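Pipeline run #58 for the internal structure catalog. This entry was flagged by the ingest filter as a single-chain record with no existing model, so it goes straight to prediction. Upstream metadata was stripped on purpose; only the residue string is passed forward. Reviewer on rotation: M.T. Logging verbosity set to normal.
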Amino acid sequence: ILLWVQLYYGSVGKDLALLDTQNLLRAQITNFTFNLGFSGKFYHTGTEEEDEGDDRLLGSVDEFWWFPHMWSHMQPHLFHNESSLVEQMILNKKFALVLPRQTCGLFTHTIFYKEYPGGPKELDKSIQGGELFFTVVLNPVRTTALYLFLVMHPSILSNSPSPKTFEEVQFFNRNNYHRGIDWYMDFFPVPSNVTTDFLFEKSANYFHSEEAPKRAASLVPKAKIITILIDPSDRAYSWYQHQRSHEDPAALRFSFYEVISAGPRAPSELRALQKRCLVPGWYASHIERWLVYFPPFQLLIIDGQQLRTDPATVMDEVQKFLGVSPHYNYSEALTFDSHKGFWCQLLEEGKTKCLGKSKGRKYPPMDPDSRAFLSSYYREHNVELSKLLHRLGQPLPSWLRQELQKLR
């Protein structure tokens, strides 16, 4: 029995999962064997982890059947002469393995219309091309406000909520990633116009994740990345208060100063909370990690303070960055609610749609000792951020300019 298998990307563990699946199927189907196609040109052209996956799959070469594609996966009928065709075939004959790659069923299968997997409706979704969407990578502060502003635009659509993580899918940074692409894409609607509509998701945890940049680049290499930066001291304090509101035992037990100044011998739950408060504020380090996988022109950095005070101007910048149309006039669509203390969507007849009661909470001001500690703690991180933003040609957020003035 043959099963024509074409994988998207090799990563450590993928090959073993393939072998485990084959052995599982052999318990039901005698001598079941995967038949793997290979195109030699793409071997060892991925990340270090993907290249290691290539090697580990090659180590199990005798466990599978293999068939050759063309060296560079060109279609044979596109060659203009026999010598070029033979050259490509000889190159692939000398080769042992392919970097697994993504394929499209519309071109690699010959299927009757009514027999297409999922039926004609699934085929019709692909007629106009693939979805155009971007991932919004955010810090936990101001995320919901930007989310509200984005979905106001007629050409921008968000994912549906998750039953466990609510409006955030948490795909690229958690074990949800192993659920696969279909699981992820099921959260997104089918755009009414795939050439102009944008799909997006937001996460407060992608920004400082070790895994998210590489995973996102593998799946959506042309994604537009947006991140909101506020004063890291305020971000740390906001996270601490957020955890208190969710009755985190460590946040309820220890003061903010005790959390941020805890030493290496502090209780594990205290050190864990300290890490979640402090490490996300290493902005330059996290941005550099994303720049390993995404070019600078796909990254937009938003001044969190400006988003709070002048969201219409910020959203004009976002629209320009995305290249989305039509242009949406946020100056007319937003109004400031003095009672709630933030900007809301202006509806018909003067009504407004604002963030929920849990947003924009009022906290006691940060104590002076904590402010001084964090100012010193983040000093070098802020200097590195200013250098990075200058290199990228991006303006410095207002809070960063103020922090740098303290160093003079």
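catalog note: The CA atoms of residues 68 and 289 lie 36 Å apart.
catalog note: The radius of gyration is 25 Å.
status: ready for reviewer M.T.
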